Amino acid sequence: MSAWPRRASTIVLGAALLFVFVSVGAAPAWSQAKETADNKAAAKEHYQRGTSFYDLGRYDDAIKEFEAAYQLKNDPAFLYNLAQSYRQAGKHEQAVHFYKTYLRYVPKAPNKADIEEKIKAEEQLLAQGGGGTTPPPVTTTPTNPPPANPPTTNPPPEGTEPNVVVPPGSTPPPGAMPPGYAPPPGYVPPATATTTDPGRKFRIAGLASAGAGAVMWVIGIVEWRRAVKASSDIEDAAVAGEAFDPAVQSRGKSAETAQWVFYGLGALAVGAGAGLWFYGQHVTAASETTTWRVSVAPVVAPGQSTFGGATLRIVF
Fold it and tell me: What integer pLDDT is reported at residue 145 of this predicted model?
C-alpha cells in the first residue's frame, strides 16, 4: 500500500484548517461592520428627530438628538447644528464652544466668516450677561425679505449644491463655495483625505478562500491523472499477460477518492470566497459615509437673517 493515502489525508486536513482559519479571521471584521451599520442607522434617526425639533423651535430637544447622533457618528456637521441649536436657545456660552469646535475640525469651512461673526456676537452677549434669553419660536413667515439684488459674484455652476461643508483634508468640489465667495490668492486645495474600507478584510478573506479552493482543484486534477494512470497500467499489464498487481489497483482507488474529496473541498472554498468577496463589496458600499454630503438649509425666524437660522442637512 502506497504512502499516498496518508499524505492525501494530511493535505485535506491542512486545507480544512486553512478554510476554518479564514472564516474565523473574518468574524471580527464581520461583527465590526455590523456595528458600524447599526450606529449609522441610529445616528440617522437621531439626526432626523433633531432636525424636526429644530424646525419646530424646540431647541432643547434638538440639542439632545444632535448630541446623541454625534456620539454615534463623529461628524463635524452635528457640531455646527449643536452650535445653531444652542444659539437659538439663548445659551451663548455653549454656542461659542460648539462653533469653535466645529471650526477646529473644519478650518476651511465655506461659511467660516459667517461663523466667526456669530462667535463675536455670542461673546458680546456673554459679556453683557445675556446668557439665558430664549428667542421666540421659529415661524415659516420671513420678516426680513431677501435683498432685491442678491450678490451674483462667482455663482455656483448650475445643478450643483451651494454651501456644501467640506470635511477637513478633502478637496472642495465644484460649486461647493457659497455665492459671492472667491478663494484667496495662492489658495491650494489640500490633499484628499484617506478613507477606511471596512469591506477590505472580507474581500481579502474571500480571495484567500477562493485561492485555497483553486489549489484544491489543481490537486484534484493531479489525483485524477494518477487514477487514470493506474487504470492504464492495469490494462497494459492484462494485455501483456502479466500478473495482476493489487497495489496498482489500490493506488488507483486512493487517487480516485482523493480526486473527488479535493473537488468537493475546492468547490466549498471557492463558494465561500465568492460570498465573502461580495459581502465585502456590500459592506464597503454601505459604509462609505466617512465624508457625508451636507448642505445649509435656512430656517427663518423673526428678527434673523435667512442664513442665521440655517442647519446642516446631511445626506446619509
Answer: 47
